[in-house]
Amino acid sequence: MRRKVVSMNYPKKISIKVPASTGNVGSGFDCVGMAMDIWNEIEVSFNAQNLTIENQGIDIEKYQQIVPEDNFIIQGIRAIDPDVDINKIRVINNNRIPFSIGLGSSAAALCAGLSIGNLLTDKKINEEELTAKAINIEGHPDNASPCFYGGLTISSFDQSEKKWITRKIDLPEDLNIVIFVPNFTSATKESRAQLPSKIERRDVVHNLSRVALLIDCFINKDFTLLKHATQDSIHQDVRFKNFPEMKSVLSAAIKAGALGAILSGSGPAIMAFSQGNEFTINYEMEESARKHNIEGNIILTRPSNKGVTIT
Fold it and tell me: Is 95 in contact with 72 (CB distance < 8 Å)?
């Protein structure tokens, strides 16, 4: 099949920002996600002789290990138009999202690629369809949805209509997030494979009751019960077996006054919510990590009510 050549009508350059995200959000396993004010900035031009991806910012060596053709930005572009000539594409990634740590680095790249692909073709598809494509590639909705919509997202698959339903909750500006990022990574695919195929009824009820409280906390912006609402019985303890010392970092955040704390996505990053006490939470999380010989750093941020942004 003859491949398309990049059209001269395409823009000379596309600049796009895409946010980090956390999946699961405690009790909201595989259905509740949140966008954060941590952004990868991506610049794409169409004057290369061969496909070129230049990584800047953090975790350069880890991002550089990805074969350019396998990069999710390119995969996203191809998912919109498989015949697009990628050989003239030059991508500059200014990465601020830590790589493979539970903050949605792969979803960010994929959603950026889908958005770029949509601009490069005449197939102008809407945000709902872009989100569905991202979910189908990712295999779960709780990172892709907040990447596109921002805020806290609830995703549900309608079996009768065969489509994804997404609802967004805007989050308050005074809600802060303290994240401890260790210096080791976790592979989401391998982590998911360790989860049980069957779940006890008591664990299902545990999470159902808490995810209802979780949504109530964020809708009403009342975080009195967030510590209770973020408790999970489905995935966190299974994943903590891969890095048990990180559970103490989570406990340290709660003891230091965090409103609630979670394993971010499949981990190993630990995320604590706060409206004050950030210095103390920061200190106690780092001190707990030090006692367990875990190296890492703290990111202090907040939720983002914006998703992918074409600049």
Answer: no
Residue 4 lies in a domain: no
154 in the same domain as 96: yes
| Rama region for 13: left / alpha / beta (φ>0; ψ in -120 to 50; rest) | beta
pLDDT digits (tens, 9 = 90+) for 169-180: 999 999 999 999
pLDDT digits (tens, 9 = 90+) for 249-259: 999 999 999 99
Nearest to 139 by CA among 157, 126, 127, 151: 157
Q: Which residue, 51, 73, 53, 72, is CA-closest to 3?
A: 51
End-to-end CA distance of the chain: 34
Q: Where are the beta strands (DSSP E) in 97-217?
A: 152-158, 163-169, 176-182
* CATH number of the CATH domain containing 293: 3.30.70.890
pLDDT digits (tens, 9 = 90+) for 46-102: 888 899 999 999 999 999 999 999 999 999 999 998 888 899 899 999 999 999 999
Burial class (CB in 10 A: 0-12, 13-18, 19+), 134: buried
Answer for the pair 207, 232: CB distance below 8 angstroms, yes or no: yes
Can you give the pTM of this predicted structure? 0.92
**CB–CB of 246/227 below 8 Å?**
no
Query: Residue 248's Cα: distance from chain center in Å?
Result: 23
Lookup result for tokens 């996600």: 33
**39 token code pair:** 């952004």
Same domain, 20 and 166: yes
C-alpha gyration radius of the chain: 20
* Separation CA 182–CA 190 (nearest Å): 18
